[in-house]
Write the structure tokens for this entry.
Amino acid sequence: MELAGKHIVLGLTGGVACYKGAELARELVKAGATVQVVMTASAQQFVTPLLLQSLTGRPVATTQWDTTQPNAMAHINLSREADAILVAPATADFIARLAQGRCDELLSLLCVARPAERCGLLVAPAMNREMWAHPATQRNAQQVQQDGAVLLGPASGSQACGEIGDGRMLEPLEIRDALIAHFQPKVLKGRRVLITAGPTFEAIDPVRGITNRSSGKMGFAIARAAAEAGAQVTLVAGPVHLPTPWGVTRLDVESARQMHDAVLPLAPSHDLFIATAAVADWRVQAPSDAKIKKVAGQGAPVLAMTENPDILAAVAALPQAPTCVGFAAETHDIERHAREKLQRKRLQLVVANHGPSTFGRDENELLLIDAKGTTALPAADKLTLARHLVAHIAQHHPCRTPPSN
Ligand code: C5P
């Protein structure tokens, strides 16, 4: 219920993506928001107000000449109640109207009438690729952002018209997550954050390998929390089955050496490095190119192992090292082992947890260990913990560069 207590005005304008707008309304309600839909006359050509009313449990507003409102000021009432206005889909025409500050129909009127300092405006464009690429649309999109709106997308891909290119509306779940992010405090605004997550996989032969028990959930939650806090986030992920969080740039790798080679050149241009990956400590020295056959009676093969590079220690030792945060998944003496890791790897912070009780789960509990002391984050879901961790880092471990405004 990430949007519990939030009142959202959801505006639909006239495009095929109105069907996704209806799905979005449902997702926002499922996330706990109260949703007041406003539809333009064109939007009503694509889906009916009845559908949106059924999904949100509220009559849809369609006109500024609404005499059922006691004060007859629908635009003031709607915009004063809202915590944010989200227009999805936003047509080229609607973006042009916003850019001009037009007020001759309800939705654009209430975008202009909203108290901008406490009611954000988020706009998800949806249109044909030529319409999006047109200089007038680009100019209008720029203007709308300069005037304080947040543009979500558009995405690239196949379009209802049969063409392929930029202009597709983002998917409803992406827009929902962008809206959730909008409400988070921007404690890492302008910072660049590099994160490793998941296990690594070290090949024995083309069909077998050695890996670690890590789902990547904690690292992905931290990537999401850092992006929500306004950071530019690069996530280097081992083999996991998780969707990329909203606003995060992802690089997929398999082995520890691939992770090392992806991370090291990126580290100097980042302010903060958070190593959540469960990197395999050893790899097979000489993996076989062909499948090692099982031969009855010959016993198991003996595999010579060699040590993998320590990615976190290598980053912490760089002359241009970012602030470094390590993880410690332990089974016993958690705090002692974590404090030893803090010193040995020369880190600013170690996040310790009890490995076996969290692997693959959605909950965890953490100890944040630094030179000043220990802070306990009690049991919670991983996204909640990730947001607390991000807030703790922002407060206690200022990054190398000052935040940009
Ligand atoms: O030394 P240990 O593996 O216990 O340290 C755990 C921390 O170091 C984690 O933050 C992990 O991501 C990082 N690490 C690494 N490269 C390795 C081993 C661990 O970055 N080869």
Notes: The CA atoms of residues 281 and 308 lie 5 Å apart. The mean pLDDT is 94. The chain has two domains: 7-182, 192-396. The chain is about 35% helix and 25% strand.
